[in-house]
Amino acid sequence: MTQEPTPSLSHVRSDGSAHMVDVSTKAETSREATAEASLKTTPEVLALIATQGMPKGDALAVARIAGIMGAKKTSELIPLCHPLPISKVVIDFDLSSTDSVRIIATVKTRGVTGVEMEALTAVSTAALALYDMIKAVDKHAVITDMRVLAKSGGKSGSWDITPELRPNPEGELRA
Fold it and tell me: Residue 159's beta-bridge partner residues?
């Protein structure tokens, strides 16, 4: 039985220590990534969120700003991420479920490396802010299902696992 060679990890040197990858020779391209996360809560809390009835105020507005801030701070939070010139961050919320808020972030840049980590940081920061806004009325809320939905640009090309659920450029859900 022949074994496939193990791909080398670009963030690990031959001695096993981590390092920041040199991207100085990579081509600058337009890049975009979309990620999602969910915050599971009760139907009563979802109704309060939808009507801006939370004790702390408009939970979605606070979570949206937190998500944008999170995307912009990714390289300060994730040790080996490169600082990127973020050109756009869109944070959307889907309240159509009876037991959760779906948080979707799309991040765009023109640069030499992708924005998947920025999109993931955006949804996680938005989810944490939303949790903070609702914890007074639901101490058992759970953040789940964080993942990258799509990416485009760069050498590895584009992929999209759920095109029908990605936000459009105006920031509104298609689904």
Answer: 151
Residue located via tokens 């990579």: 26
Q: What's the confidence (pLDDT) of residue 5?
A: 52
Mean pLDDT across 18-44? 89
Of 157, 154, 174, residue with least CA distance to 166: 174
- Catalytic: which of 15, 58, 99, 132? 132
Give me the pLDDT at residue 175, please.
38
132 is catalytic: yes
Amino acid type, 6: T
Extract the tokens encoding 127: 């989810």
**Distance in angstroms (rounded) separating the CA atoms of residues 79 and 166:** 28
Token pair 């031959």 in the structure block, residue:
14
Tokens of 86: 């973020």
Please give the Cα distance from 93 to 96 (Å, whole number).
9
What residue type is assigned to position 83 of the chain? Answer: P
Among candidate residues 132, 87, 103, the one with its CA nearest the CA of residue 39: 103
CA–CA separation, 84 vs 78, rounded Å?
13
Task: Report the C-alpha gap between 125 and 89 in whole angstroms.
Answer: 13
Burial (0-12, 13-18, 19+ Cβ within 10 Å), 153: buried
- pLDDT surpasses 80 at 144: yes
